[in-house]
């Protein structure tokens, strides 16, 4: 066993910096299209000052009361994004008004700093039952750490310089 000391791995080293984010006024149909295009399940909602004001996920888009009806996320996102024929109840829900991200987002959002250690990040995700957490510097979003980022770091495939 080696006695080499390595500094702790932090959010800055494992975070994704090419983050899809939306504004509070982004239409929910646009949010759905963007999530589908990027192959992700949620995006931070960021104001004009790059401050995180919410998080919008697939579950938020389909609505809490019809959440159980969507069994395959890609199926419902494709339908929502492309405007194809939908089940009448779902279509009625979508068309009841022109919703924007602000209307469906979860707020406030749990956030971390760039210096947060990955052990703390994992605890935060588990404690709050969330899948990703925005990373802030001086109150502004600079990245996001997802469960996949943590798995990459723990498996040795981190963005950490050797």
Task: Describe the protein.
The protein is α+β, with helices and mostly antiparallel strands and 162 residues long. The protein has one domain: Roll (CBS-domain). It contains 8 helices and 5 strands, in the order ααββααααβαββα. The strands form 2 sheets. It has a 3-stranded mixed beta sheet with strand order 3-4-5.
* Gyration radius, in Å: 18 Å
Tally of individual helices: 8
- Side by side, the strands of the main sheet go 3-4-5
Major β-sheet, in short?
3 strands, mixed
Shape annotation: globular
**On the 0-100 scale, what is the average pLDDT?**
82
Q: Which CATH architecture would you pick?
A: Roll
- Name the CATH superfamily classification: CBS-domain
Which secondary-structure class do the elements indicate?
alpha+beta
How many structural units, i.e. domains?
A: 1
Q: Topology as H/E string?
A: HHEEHHHHEHEEH
CATH class: Alpha Beta
Uncertain runs with pLDDT below 50, 5 residues or more?
Answer: 67-72
Helix content: 25-40%
């Amino acid at each position: 066993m080696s006695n080499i000391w390595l500094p702790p791995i932090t959010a800055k080293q494992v975070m994704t910096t090419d983050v899809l984010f939306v504004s509070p006024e982004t239409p929910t149909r646009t949010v759905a299209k963007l999530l589908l295009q990027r192959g992700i399940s949620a995006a931070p909602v960021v104001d004009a000052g790059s401050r995180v004001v919410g998080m919008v996920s697939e579950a938020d888009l389909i609505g809490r009361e019809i959440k159980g009806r969507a069994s395959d996320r890609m199926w419902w996102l494709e339908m929502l994004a492309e405007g194809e024929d939908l089940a009448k109840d779902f279509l009625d829900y979508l068309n009841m008004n022109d919703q924007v991200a602000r209307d469906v987002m979860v707020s406030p959002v749990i956030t971390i700093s760039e210096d947060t250690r990955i052990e703390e990040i994992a605890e935060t995700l588990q404690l709050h039952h969330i899948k990703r957490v925005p990373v802030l510097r001086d109150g502004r979003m600079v990245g996001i750490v997802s469960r996949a980022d943590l798995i990459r770091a723990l498996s040795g495939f981190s963005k950490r310089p050797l």
